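Possible regression after last week's pipeline update?

I re-ran a chain I had predicted before the update to compare outputs. Posting the input and the new output here so someone can diff against the archived version. Not blocking, just want to make sure nothing changed silently.
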Amino acid sequence: MGTWRFGELSEVDKAKSIIDLRANCNRDRYIWLTSICFDFARGNILNDLAENEGISNYSVDEIKEKVKYSYRRIDEIVESDLMGLADIIYKVGAIWCEAAYWLMLLIYKEDEPLFQKINEDIIAQEDRRILGIFEQNLEQFQDSLKKEQEELDKEQGKYSSEQVTKYINTLLSMVFGGRKIWLESDEDFGYIANNKYGVILPSRLSIGEQNILSLCYFFASLCEGENFDRLFTKNQIVILDDPVSSFDDSNKYGVTALLGYLCQSVLDKSSKTKLIIMTHDLSFALNMSKMIKAIDDSKLSCWELQKDSSDVLIKSKFEDIDRYADMLRIMYDFAVSSQKNAVVPAPNDVRRVWEAFLSFELGETSIAEMGAMKKLSESFSKDKQIERFIKIFIPQLFINSDSHSKSQIMNGNMYLTPTLVGKPYEDFVKNIVCCMHIIAPRHIAWRMKKYKGEGKSILKFVKELDNLLKDVLDSPKIVTAMDSLGEIERLHRMRHRGGRVPLNIRRQAAKR
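New output (post-update):
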């Protein structure tokens, strides 16, 4: 065979030989290939020994582990389907040099005379036999490692990717009502999403679909190697923060059905899991409470976070919650109360109430539709006070500008300070309440009946609204932002000078 020096082979030829040798399992040629790397490894080892790099401190077992690790890396690269031939050649060449280094050091430790012969570029047949013994030992190490790996794979088989995929797909079918989207395990990339048309790129999944996949994967991840049937038997606390956010109605229904199915396991007698679900969606909260009550009413606890500054949690019956009535009550109290500490309704809540009212009473869907308001004023032509009030009533200007941050930023209100503050905002809310009372004299009063425990009758509410309307009609006001312009400018100047907007204004802006 002759004597070969490492430098006489190119990286390409060396790597190709390695690939060929590993494929054909030819140990003699493999040993020969090891010998051609000795010149390279020998030089490095001599340099490291001369520079006192500490390599002499390595034990024989440590060196064997280094060799074994290098061989394993070569196997992984050669068998990889992710790299082209050029990449494989480059990476195998580099790792093979590393393997040769540790093999050479192993010879140095085990047989220093042989190392000296190699250093003189003399490799005899007998020496090759010794190298073969080293190689045989390494192969034994590899066989042992392979057996251990097989045992580990068998132990982890119950939590294999195929089983995880099967479980996630079961949950997905519950949400989508069939095989709309499903996952397939991929050895190199984890999981691939599919539909009936083929593979779905992550960028093509909607936000709702991404959230559903994440939710199903989250439940699968809770198993941590255990059987999926025992998912909720562990003593754990599972918290879901608004799990139906960004969903359309069909997907919201699917997620609700999925959670209802999982709650059967959570509420089982053998379960030690505690489930906390937080949401802003009242309909979802109500549906979940109904499903859980049907399974086990004794284990359900419903709580509501108060929207006022107290941030207190109170026990609640979701079926009794009426957000529209709650916001309307705050507006009513603010308009008719003479107390200075009355809760100030958030501009966004005022807009929502007004939109809902227009839809209920006038069939309008846009708060900026003034055609209906003009027609309404004409219907009160016999009552000049009301006609005049409605004609000068222009709420959409302020509701839009004060509840949508985009329009405020475009107009230079970079700190989103309220367009109306103080007395102008109070007059504005009074005008809204009065206009609603004019259009539907019993609307507000009847929605207040849920507060009958306070001792007020519906007639009492009507009387207070009649008195408010009389005061407003006697002195109608055109509420304009110019009324509070000086205050807004002062706030802006304070901000630019490094000051802070007053606390009550910041709180009002934060509620939007």
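Follow-up from reviewer: compared with the archived run. Residues 125-155 form the longest helix (31 residues). Marking as no regression found.
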